[in-house]
Write a structure and sequence with these properties.
Layout: H1 2-11, H2 14-26, E1 33-34, H3 37-43, E2 52-56, E3 59-66, E4 70-77, H4 85-95, E5 106-110, E6 117-121, H5 128-133, H6 143-162, E7 168-169, E8 178-180, E9 186-188, E10 195-196, E11 204-205, H7 217-222, E12 224-225, H8 227-243, E13 248-251, E14 254-257, H9 258-267, H10 277-282, H11 285-298, H12 309-328
Parallel strand pairs: 1-5
Antiparallel strand pairs: 2-3, 3-4, 4-6, 5-6, 7-10, 8-9, 11-12, 13-14
């Protein structure tokens, strides 16, 4: 049994990870923890059905508890081909160094199993998607909270693109991959499709990954991934929050692409007709139009015509601060 675990640990890149963690600790960086299978089984009550927390595009998630770290989320990753192990470990090491209040924190991994397990902090209020599209969950999602959340997501992406040790392109930004904690603070999650970009690179040739409706059309046709691909996804997500419509939605049996519909509504000066009724009735029109303009800039067909996330974050921070000041006057 012990030899089998050692074999799996090695197959999943454990020795490579240990070497990288050793060099990181010498640089004064706090490394992630490599958990044993027994620790994770105890934490999740042997992956009991009662601890099942959800299923995503890149794995199954279980809730657990560790004495020293409190509640955790354990993701059973999809099977990884051996040729991808080195890349998986490199990304794991980099993601462990991401430290931002609006990004889900990776605590560690377990490699002595058939497929790697990733251990994250547990986020209690689930995915933003459910709050947008389920009226029973989303009554709190008024204009002020919408602004705050999109600002938090923008700041997380600006950090990933420009402030992390290496630029990170998330590649699958969508409402299902934004979680909300006990204070309804946004946490960007699910980096299963993410890619690292060297500091001297501006684009990366890669197989197209993402979600229908959110996918950057330029990336889809060229396979050239850039930070502006995340910007496009962000634009779709904000349009989704403003309209309460899914990225691909149907009206009377006809399917619509939300990004296309949103941009067309702006061009024909009919944006109010597509924005959620509750927001139209309660939000200042100038603020709605300001955010709608940002969305349309993000949804430009050419990546070079889209703004950088750092600029979007600054614009949204200013608007949020202005709204907060008005609330307390």
């Amino acid at each position: 049994m012990l030899k089998e675990k050692e074999k799996l640990f090695t197959k999943n890149g454990g020795l490579l990870l240990e070497g990288q963690l050793s060099s990181m600790s010498q640089g004064g960086i706090e490394p992630i923890k490599i958990f044993t299978e027994e620790e994770i089984k105890i934490a999740t009550n042997n992956f009991s059905d009662n601890n099942f927390a959800g299923r995503g595009g890149s794995g199954i998630v279980y809730k657990g508890r560790l004495e020293d770290k409190g509640l955790i989320a354990v993701k059973k990753a999809t099977i990884i081909d051996e040729v991808q192990i080195e890349q998986f470990i490199n990304e794991l090491v980099i993601l462990s160094q991401v430290n931002h209040r609006n990004v889900v924190k990776l605590l560690g991994c377990c490699l002595e199993v058939e497929v790697p397990l990733l251990i994250y902090e547990f986020i209690s209020n689930g995915a933003l998607f459910n709050h947008i599209h389920n009226s029973a969950h989303g009554s709190w999602l008024d204009w002020e909270n919408c602004l705050r959340i999109i600002s938090e997501i923008a700041n997380a992406l600006a950090y990933l693109h420009g402030s992390a040790n290496f630029p990170i392109i998330h590649r699958d930004i969508k409402s299902a991959n934004v979680l909300l904690d006990h204070n309804y603070t946004a946490k960007v999650s699910d980096f299963g499709a993410s890619r690292l970009i060297a500091l001297d690179q501006t684009k990366l040739g890669t197989a197209v990954r993402g979600t229908l409706g959110y996918l950057d059309p330029e990336y889809m046709f060229s396979s050239q991934l850039t930070e502006k691909s995340d910007v496009y996804c962000f634009g779709v997500l904000v349009a989704e929050m403003m309209t309460k419509k899914k990225a691909v939605f149907s009206v009377k049996g006809k399917f619509w692409n939300l990004a296309t519909r949103f941009v067309e509504s702006m061009k024909t000066l009919q944006i109010v007709s597509i924005v959620d009724v509750q927001l139209v009735q309660t939000a200042p029109r100038d603020e709605v139009m300001y955010v709608a303009e940002i969305v349309c800039q993000c949804l430009n067909e050419r990546g070079e015509d889209r703004p950088a996330m750092k600029d979007i974050a600054v614009q949204l921070d200013r608007l949020v601060n202005r709204v907060l000041i008005k609330m307390f006057i």
